[in-house]
């Protein structure tokens, strides 16, 4: 009898994990109920699916609060716009932090639902990383987009760490400043500036770029020059 109940409990736990994962992958609670009935012969109500998801909360909190024990050399910070469905659908920012060690190992350090990329939201995430063990003296470079809130939070909490604008974001900005008819040419040429082997060559390439595109794509030239 104990063997039977042990096997039943393990099976039940596996079913709960599968149901919760379906929901996390975007399947609605109503559809999860229909799928579970087709698979196991028993349908779970939306309330039951929500209860199953609640059991994941402890694992999530443990992951979010785990100590950062490996020295982080490079830190990437960015916000991702997501559509969230509550009683209505809204778009909010998920603020993310990715760390890279000196050996090149990448680790997703954590995230917060920021609402907007405000200074307060970024401040909360950065303080959380520091409290978990990320040391400012280990950081050589932080790569960010142009968010004013993020720059403000970094100036307060990590003022001595070098900051670099993300090249991908910058190239997107340049593309947005380029006339549609030239978007297959101008961004590609601008990319050569950022990937030059040294500063002198980068400036030489930019001067040639500026001379060529000042008339046809002045905003793109201004975006780089700024």
Assign an overall shape: globular
Count the E strands: 5
Q: What structural class do helix, strand and pairing data support?
A: alpha/beta
Distance between the termini: 74 Å
For the sheet with most strands, the description reads:
5 strands, mixed
Assign a percent range to the helix content.
40-55%
Strand order of the largest sheet: 3-2-1-4-5
**Count of helical regions:** 10
Sketch the topology as an H/E string, one letter per element: HHHHEEEHEHEHHHH
Fold blueprint:
Elements: H1 2-24, H2 29-40, H3 46-54, H4 57-64, E1 74-85, E2 89-100, E3 106-115, H5 119-131, E4 141-144, H6 148-157, E5 163-165, H7 167-176, H8 186-194, H9 199-213, H10 218-225
Parallel strand pairs: 1-4, 4-5
Antiparallel strand pairs: 1-2, 2-3
Helix pairs in contact: 1-3, 2-3, 5-6, 7-8, 7-10, 8-9, 9-10
């Amino acid at each position: 009898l104990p063997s039977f109940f042990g096997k039943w409990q393990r099976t039940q736990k596996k079913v709960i994990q599968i149901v919760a994962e379906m929901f996390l992958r975007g399947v609605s609670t109503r559809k999860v109920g229909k799928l579970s009935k087709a698979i196991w012969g028993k349908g779970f109500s939306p309330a039951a699916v929500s209860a199953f998801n609640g059991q994941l909360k402890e694992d999530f909190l443990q992951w979010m609060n785990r100590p950062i024990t490996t020295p982080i050399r490079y830190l990437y910070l960015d916000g991702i716009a997501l559509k969230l469905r509550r009683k209505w659908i809204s778009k909010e920012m998920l603020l993310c932090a990715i760390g890279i060690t000196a050996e090149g190992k990448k680790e997703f350090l954590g995230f917060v639902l920021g609402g907007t990329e405000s200074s307060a939201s970024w401040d909360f995430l950065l303080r959380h990383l520091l409290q978990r063990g990320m040391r400012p003296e280990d950081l050589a470079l932080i790569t960010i987009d142009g968010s004013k809130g993020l720059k403000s939070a970094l100036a307060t909490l990590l003022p001595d760490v070098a900051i670099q604008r993300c090249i991908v974001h910058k190239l997107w900005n340049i593309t947005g400043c380029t006339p549609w008819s030239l978007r297959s040419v101008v961004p590609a040429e601008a990319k050569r500036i950022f990937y030059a082997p040294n500063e002198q060559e980068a400036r030489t390439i930019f001067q040639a770029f500026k001379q060529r595109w000042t008339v046809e794509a002045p905003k793109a030239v201004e975006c780089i020059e700024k």
